[in-house]
Amino acid sequence: MTVISCDACKKxxxxxxxxxxxxxxxxxxxxxxxSEKLLETTKRHAAAHAPFAFRDYQATLQRDLAKMCGR
Length: 71
Ligand SMILES: [Zn+2]
Description:
The protein is an alpha+beta fold. It has 2 helices and 4 strands; from the N terminus they run ββββαα. The strands form 2 sheets. It has a two-stranded antiparallel sheet. A hairpin with a 6-residue loop joins β1 and β2. The protein starts with a strand and ends with a helix. Bound molecules: zinc ion (ZN).
């Protein structure tokens, strides 16, 4: 069994199942609480900078993700 740990909070995800209790965003494994936080942050940013192109959304998501992963 593969042990997955969240790239943002570094916690192990017991019984990790993709799209069930963790998701892969870009090349990072992210637990559900962290992915919700990430999407929330990105959405708030998008709302503040409307109209927001999908390309920009991706860039923002990537930046917020990197920030959460401590890089
Ligand atoms: Zn996490």
